[in-house]
Write a structure and sequence with these properties.
4-stranded antiparallel beta sheet, single chain, mainly beta, 2 helices
Length: about 675
């Protein structure tokens, strides 16, 4: 509080705490205890359909079946017991893909085998789409991508083998796109990705082997992109990802081994990016690619650096080690990638801090540990996982060594990386399994001690990772030395644009009325982004010093002017200023005229407060009566009332006149 703006107060905006405080209060609500008791319903990742979401859950009676919820307990119910009784209708890994107003999923009703189903979030709208392979075996669809109202998937109809299919949610609109590999053998070989309205995937045909294919949803538009390994040899494209408008993958051209390739969907644009290990030795076989922004990231092991983070911008020169996170040939083992904007977040171990949260923009300088969540070897994410990202915020599971595995969030800064809530205090933790956005809210599957693993709902405020803004306004008259010379009014403004203020302490308006060299006021405010504590220190000096004047002084005139009088110094005391400045209306040692003179003494402290006292200095004429002074007792006639001083003056005048006449 030393650099004040003016003498009438100032607006104080204080900086943030070094690291944002972590939230600990419960901020989520249980949607419904679907399976009463501590076991939990083990809900799958949900899919949002307008004002509701659908999820696979097990209530302990009906088995794993589709449920719907609007986020409330009363609005959460079983959509359909597709396979009656305790038998489950879903596989171990239920999946929903939303296309238009329907969420598609794969289920077995006990008669048709695993087939394509859909739901619009209503009981009546939860139906089998098509029995693609008649009988109890099922076509076992593998869901892929949605384009508009159409979902694309692989299925086996028992005639064409496992091939590419599509569905608009009707029986007639569920059709084979193309029989890529004629006969019972399947064509598609792995997951599909999408760029715009074009699907990319690996597929096998008898002529070219396993190569990169694409489809626009029509038979004619489903074609091989390039025969990378010519003839019936396999280039076997693996780990397809999309970065920008380019699909990246690992493939073997028969000469260089498995290396990084890219394609924009044409033969000529499908090229090898680089050959990291020259010759036929592979550097990308079984490597998992991850895309963030226009870069692809991957983990690669070398003898010099160990298992570390690498990245590529699609050029040979731009394909390189990003950072040797664990120096030397030790390995940081980067894993669990999630894109947040153009940055890649991941878990890595630098061998000093254990497994912690890291981020990278593809440069060495931009690859940093976000926060040491558990400050000891082992790390806060040694058993954690990155879940999902919403509105530039990452949600993940971490253990700070106190709360156990709980839900955390991060905006990529240390202060913005914090515990969302300690749902299950102690070392067991709530073990969040997934996080999914539902409107302006976040759904999380996690376990508390009472209900087990169930769906909990967090309001949009949990997306807030910024601390509240706390502003203090001070009013009063301010001296140049930083002290207020009046009462000081203090008011606080506490705001957060991203979430409500949930609590505030010491933030009420107040007035400082007592002089002090420093009274400190603190406002503590909490929002969804954490807790900020801000303070102001106020110095007040509104009381004038107390001066003490010397006693009245007397002196005898030494000539016609009077007498030079030296008097003792005045003193002054002040509660704040140890040495107030003292000034006099007539300085000590100056000449005082015959008669009585009042001297005014002023004491002024460093804040400008002042007070006065007075004393008198009386100069007499040396014993010769002065008719002008009271109590002279001289006669009334001019002769008898003249003073020696007047006679001397007259004689001097006469002598002067005589001298002039003689001249």
């Amino acid at each position: 509080m030393n650099d004040f703006l003016n003498s009438f107060g100032r607006l104080v905006l204080l900086g943030a705490l070094g690291t944002g405080a972590t939230a600990s209060a419960q901020v989520s609500t249980l949607v419904k205890d679907i399976r009463p008791g501590t076991t939990g319903s083990a809900p799958s990742i949900p899919a949002a359909l307008g004002n509701v979401f659908v999820v696979a859950a097990d209530d302990g009676t009906s088995g794993l079946e589709p449920w719907v919820s609007d986020g409330t307990a009363v609005g959460t119910f079983l959509l359909k017991d597709i396979q009656s009784g305790a038998a489950r209708s879903f596989t171990d890994t239920p999946q929903f893909v939303v296309a238009g107003s329907n969420a598609f999923f794969v289920a077995d009703d006990g008669s048709t085998g695993f087939e394509l189903w859909k739901t619009d979030g209503t009981v009546a709208g939860t139906t089998l789409v098509k029995d693609i392979l008649s009988g109890p075996n099922g076509s076992t669809p593998i869901l892929g991508e949605a384009i508009g109202n159409t979902v694309y998937f692989y299925a086996n109809d028992g005639v064409t083998g496992n091939e590419l299919w599509k569905s608009d949610g009707t029986d007639t609109g569920t059709t084979l796109v193309k029989d890529i590999r004629t006969g019972l053998g399947g064509g598609p070989q792995g997951p599909m990705v999408r760029i715009g309205s074009t699907l990319y995937f690996s597929a096998f045909d008898a002529t070219t082997g396993v190569e990169l294919w694409k489809s626009d949803g029509t038979t004619a538009g489903t074609v091989i992109v390039k025969d990378i390994n010519p003839g019936t040899n396999f280039s076997d494209p693996q780990s397809l990802v999309v970065a920008g408008d380019t699909v990246y993958f690992a493939a073997d051209d028969g000469t260089t081994g498995y290396e990084l390739w890219k394609s924009n969907g044409t033969d000529t644009s499908t090229t090898r990016v680089t050959d990291l290990v020259p010759g036929s030795t592979s550097s990308f076989e079984n490597v998992t690619l991850f895309a963030a922004g226009n870069r692809v990231y991957f983990r690669r092991n070398t003898a010099a650096e160990g298992d570390e983070l690498w990245a590529s911008d699609g050029t040979a020169a731009g394909t390189a080690l990003v950072k040797d996170i664990a120096p030397g040939n030790a390995s940081s083992f980067p894993t669990s990638f999630v894109a947040v904007g153009t940055q890649a977040f991941f878990i890595a171990d630098d061998t000093s801090n254990g497994s912690e949260l890291w981020k990278s923009d593809g440069t060495e300088a931009g690859t940093v540990m976000v926060k040491d969540i558990q400050p000891r070897l082992g790390g806060g994410l040694s058993t954690g996982r990155l879940l999902n990202a919403f509105d530039g915020k990452l949600f993940f599971t971490a253990d700070d060594g106190v709360s156990g595995p709980e839900l955390w969030k991060s905006d990529g800064t240390e202060s913005g990386t914090m515990l969302v809530e300690d749902l299950r205090p102690g070392s067991p933790g709530s073990e969040p399994q997934w996080a999914s956005q539902f409107g302006t809210s976040i759904l999380v599957a996690e376990a508390d001690a009472a209900a087990g693993n169930e769906i909990r709902l967090l309001q949009s405020s949990v997306l807030d990772t910024s601390l509240p803004v706390v502003v203090a306004t001070l009013t009063g008259t301010l001296a140049a030395n930083g002290f207020y010379t009046t009462d000081v009014g203090v008011s606080w403004s506490v705001t957060d644009a991203d979430s409500p203020i949930t609590s505030s302490t010491g933030c009420d308006a107040t007035t400082v009325t007592t002089d002090s060299t420093g009274v400190t006021l603190t406002c503590v405010a909490t929002s969804g982004g954490g807790t900020r504590s801000e303070s102001v220190t106020i110095k007040r000096d509104a009381t004038a010093p107390a001066p003490t004047c010397p006693a009245n002084q007397s002196a005898t005139a030494t000539d016609s002017r009077g007498a030079s009088v030296t008097y003792p110094a005045a003193t002054a005391t002040d509660a704040i200023d140890p040495a107030p400045a003292i000034t006099y209306s007539q300085a000590s040692g100056s000449t005082f005229p015959v008669g009585t003179t009042t001297v005014t003494t002023t004491a002024r402290d460093a804040s400008g407060n002042s007070a006065t006292c007075t004393f008198t200095v009386t100069v007499s004429n040396g014993g010769t009566p002065n008719p002008n002074e009271p109590g002279c007792g001289c006669g009334a006639s001019p002769a008898s009332s003249g003073s020696v001083w007047a006679l001397l003056a007259l004689l001097s005048l006469v002598a002067t006149q005589k001298a002039r006449r003689s001249v």
